Amino acid sequence: MGLFNFDTGAIEERVSSNMKIFLFMAMGLVVFVALVAAAVFFINVRGAEQTMVPNVQGKELTAALLELQVKEIYPRIQLRHTQTSADRGLILEQSPPPGTIVRAGRRIQLVVSQGAMLNTVENFVGRHLEDVRMDIQMGFFIQYAAFGDAPAQSLLSIREPLLHEFSSEPAGTILQQRPEPGTPITGPTTLDLVVSRGLEHTMVHLPNLMGLSIADTLEQIGRTGIDFEFSLRPVQDGETAGTVVAQSPAGDTFSDLNTRVAITVASPATVPDNEVFGLFRFNMARNPYPLLIRLEAISPGSERQRLLTVQYAGGPLTVPFRLPVGTELVLSMLNREIHRELVGR
């Protein structure tokens, strides 16, 4: 009878080889799945960051910047003189062109008009002082090309402090200027300006604010432009929390425009844990005439709400509010942010 040879060593070697093949295949499958997942993730992220370049050519610079901000696109600005002052501040060119798909955060090139190249002093009489300031700050007048590596500087500047006088012209209107319009510009030139304070004794009708809510009171203040100062006190019997409960001078009377109206608002006895009832305070510099200010609230969800827009001459600014915890209060003057603070307990 023959013997059957059972080679255990060969079997073990074959099993070991098969195990290695299985392990390599398993590892390869894991790596493949990981690569596919990573590719899908980055494709989705990249797609979410894409945005379309809007058409801002021919638009005013401020409007164009706001539109680009919404698209999360940031500008690189280049100034250029043109043949007319009528297009000063408008976007002449943009690159990349409108409709281009780019990633969010991309910078695009904007060419902004400086208006016509000037060689004489313009006539500023009748213009508002802040408009002239803005034009000079943004470089919309001749730039003095300095020698060497020194930066260019504006040929025009305004001498401070300004001269003010009462007149029938609206406050802030330029009444006189030196040098006179048409004076040749041969180098850096300083403007001496006389600016209107408005009428010396302007009477204004004081609105009756008694019983109004905070929002309605701030709306009335914005419409009439009265000077004001708020205070808070605990609500009393018969009163409604969050409304005006005292006013001095009284409403439905006439008073000088510069008279500060004291307004008292009743504070609620209790406020939910996720809200804050309080008084915004900010000490502003006094101006010879009122300037446009705006107080806005940005909620934790990034929703923006206007609380107050008014012509304000400066001094202590007080504004009552009832807002969610975590809201940001943003104070701007002439569309430029000057203060920001977080509402909390």
pLDDT < 50 runs, ≥5 residues = 141-151
| Structural class determined from secondary elements | alpha+beta
DSSP strand (E) fraction?
Answer: 35-45%
Terminus-to-terminus distance = 100 Å
Order of helices and strands: HEHEEEEHEEEEEEEHEEEEEEEEEE
CATH class label of the largest domain: Alpha Beta
What is the CATH architecture annotation of the largest domain?
A: 2-Layer Sandwich
Helix content: 10-25%
What do we call the CATH topology of the largest domain?
Trypsin Inhibitor V, Chain A
Q: Describe the biggest sheet?
A: 4 strands, mixed
Overall shape: it is flat
The total beta strand count reads 22
Overall mean pLDDT score? Answer: 84
Q: What is the alpha-carbon Rg in Å?
A: 33 Å
Structural features:
345 residues; alpha+beta; Trypsin Inhibitor V, Chain A; 3 domains; 4-stranded mixed β-sheet; 4-stranded antiparallel β-sheet; flat
Account of the protein in words:
- The chain has 345 residues and is of the alpha+beta class.
- It has three domains: 43-116, Trypsin Inhibitor V, Chain A (2-Layer Sandwich); 118-143 and 153-198, Trypsin Inhibitor V, Chain A; 203-342, Trypsin Inhibitor V, Chain A, CATH 3.30.10.20.
- The protein is 21% helix and 38% strand.
- It has four helices and 22 strands.
- The chain has helices spanning 8-49, 61-70, 129-137, 214-224; strands at residues 50-52, 74-82, 91-95, 101-103, 107-116, 143-144, 153-154, 156-158, 163-165, 174-178, 189-196, 203-206, 227-234, 244-248, 253-256, 260-267, 275-284, 291-298, 304-312, 315-324, 328-333, 336-342.
- The strands form eight sheets. Strands 8, 9, 10 and 11 form a four-stranded mixed beta sheet that branches. A four-stranded antiparallel beta sheet has the order 19-18-21-22.
- It starts with 7 loop residues before the first helix and ends with a strand.
